[in-house]
Amino acid sequence: MSKTKKQIRFNAFEMNCITHQSAGTWRYPGDETLRYKDIEYWQNISRIAEKGLFDAVFIADVLGVYDAYKGNADAAIRGAVQIPVNDPLQLATIGASVTQNLSFGITAGVFFEQPFPFARRLSTLDHLTKGRVGWNIVTGYLPSANENLGSKEFPHDERYDYADEYMEVIYKLLEGSWQDDAVVLDKERGIFADPAKIHPINHKGKYFSVPGIHVCEPSIQRTPVLFQAGNSPRGLKFAAKHAEAIFISPTSIEYTKDSVRQIREELIKAGRDPYSAKIYVLSTIITDETDALAEAKHKDLLKYVSEESSLVLNSGWLGEDLSKYRLDDKLTNIKSNAVIGKVKELSEGKTDDGKDWTLRDLIRVAGIGGLGRKVIGGQKKVADELEKIIEYTDADGFNLAYATAPGTISDIVEFIVPELQKRGSYQLEYSSGSLRNKLFGKGDRLGSNHIGSQYRILNNDSSSLSVSNITTPNLNLSGEQNAV
């Protein structure tokens, strides 16, 4: 097989919980996910990912419980299915403190964070990580989250209308409030910043009213790299408008190719270069020194898969109580307000052996690594398959879900990364700078064809005062103020 010219990219797909994508494998010998509350656990994962030259540790999140299955959260609680779940944002600074180049993608939902304080959190993370942070924009799919926040449940497509305005507020705060030269740092005269170059955003829209200035000085990237995973028609339109990294989770290589094609076409429709966003395919790699050892490892892992926990996860993802189906029922009649693209694929698509999807197939495939692809084998077999996927589908890399943590990622770094490097299909060292520059090699800031760039204010804005014209109060002992 000829070597692919495209460099394959990896993210470690994690979540601040016990059960993320693999149902029940927290019980597997050597798995450490029960240590998810420990700083050292996340530091170790970060070090392993950086050793493997991964782009990022991408941290998923939900603010709600998986209660679609049987109409309650009992099964989710029994199996630790994304409950308990801790906040993802702190993990970026924990991981960045022990790494130099690895980046961190954090997930936050637009319905659960007001844009004004959230913009401050983004700037803070970008400062503390030195530009090694991205934000996964989600609209959410668990009704329980909205209920606990007292929010109404928006129809699927209106969720993205809301998110579009949310992004407009974020861009105005991060890109347009402070000019690049607003911070002057004149210690002699006691002038930190020129107030004439810091602007209120005066936003008043359908969903938000935000009049003031951003409360943080500009960070390296200003706007962190924007991640998105929408795969419904409306979600794709939103992703093409905003995202710089897009995650997809098709179960077949044909659906992967079709998804990538649709994304590239939507990027063009949005006025962007079709390769202005990196596309990562959700996958789980089970590997070892030989094919036989990898197959044996996979077979052993399957013994620990919880059927109930798998049904809990998939009921949440599909927005349907799967307890009412029999194992051999076909998944052709699901109506969902959740992950619509995945519902469409399962109801209209075929399994790898050409059959209609049944609930039994869903449990078998999704028990380890969720609804993404499974690649099982030794170094050569896995590398061949990864290159084939990238070459055939035109995707850029893989969002790697784990079967066990940190075992799965450690195996990939030990066995697969060196093989891909030997073939010329994987980077030998990190590029310099921020996450955005590492991904695209075009600097730290949003590209000029990205919608966020239109909110920038030029440094030569005629309404701004020069530093020499700034006046500061001179306090004397009498308390009177004289301008200087």
UniProtKB/TrEMBL annotation:
It holds the Pfam family Bac_luciferase. Residues 31-345 form the Luciferase-like domain. The keyword Zinc does not apply. InterPro entries: Diverse_substr_monoxygenases (IPR051260), Luciferase-like_dom (IPR011251), Luciferase-like_sf (IPR036661), NTA_MOA (IPR016215). It comes from the Bacteria. FMN binds at residues 61, 107, 156, 160, 232. GO terms for molecular function: monooxygenase activity; oxidoreductase activity, acting on paired donors, with incorporation or reduction of molecular oxygen. SUPFAM superfamilies: Bacterial luciferase-like. The keyword Flavoprotein applies. Keywords: Flavoprotein, FMN, Monooxygenase, Oxidoreductase. NCBIfam families: FMN_nitrolo (TIGR03860). Belongs to the NtaA/SnaA/DszA monooxygenase family. PANTHER family: ALKANESULFONATE MONOOXYGENASE-RELATED, C2H2 FINGER DOMAIN TRANSCRIPTION FACTOR (EUROFUNG)-RELATED. This is Coenzyme F420-dependent N5,N10-methylene tetrahydromethanopterin reductase and related flavin-dependent oxidoreductases. It comes from Helicobacter fennelliae MRY12-0050.
